[in-house]
Amino acid sequence: MKGRDLLYNEAQAPWPRTYLFDHPLIQHKLTLIRDKRTSSKEFRELVQEITMLMVYEATRDLPLEETVVETPIAHAHAHILAGKKLAFVPILRAGLGMVAGALQLIPNARVGHVGFYRDPHSLQPVEYYCKLPQDIAERDAFLLDPMLATGGSASAAVALLKEKGARTIRTLHLIAAPEGLHKLLNDHEDISVYVAAVDQRLNEHGYIVPGLGDAGDRLFGTK
Predict the structure, then answer these.
(1) pLDDT band for position 11 (50/70/90)?
(2) Which of 8, 100, 85 has its CA nearest to residue 45?
(3) What separation in angstroms does the CA of 155 have from each of 92, 143, 150, 193, 217?
(4) Region 8-27: what's the mean pLDDT?
(5) Rounded to 10 degrees, what is the CA torsion of 27, 45, 129, 116?
(6) Do 132 and 92 touch, CB atoms closer than 8 A?
(7) What is the pTM of this model?
């Protein structure tokens, strides 16, 4: 798969089906959003730019079909996307920061939204919102979730998309913790995971170390 490398191949688990982006622009912009001095405005803009670059790479295998167009000079044999239907599905709320960048690249894609909160007793994610395109069963879904920490919400979101009929699911994350990758890949053996960085671990509060803090708070200027 040109332009992206498996973190580990199938014989080198623990992270099969995971693609790490090593593009210099992605890594440069990721460094800027890690910096605690980066303003909310700059943070939002950088997240959009990183997402656009990630979607560019994650869609490298979309099928094409031949067509003919008339240029100002002559007829040209060219290629267009082969009718592929896509949907971007951010996990509320931090995933909203990735939507604009994804749509910059594929403006005709549909957008769904899913939301979860953590039950205080079971500590399991509980769905509180789901609004998907009516034809989600005919679409390939890209789940947008900036921080893959414990993996609980992402795994629940993938399960929900499957329940609603999404035929192919890919998840996009700016930063992942090993714990989140393990859970997501163990729970779902039929998805692909795309990530810009895999950090060291989770701390006692469930934050990724070194990470970048709370992505939602930094996107929207809240505490």
Answers:
(1) very low
(2) 100
(3) 14, 10, 9, 11, 22
(4) 76
(5) 40
(6) no
(7) 0.90
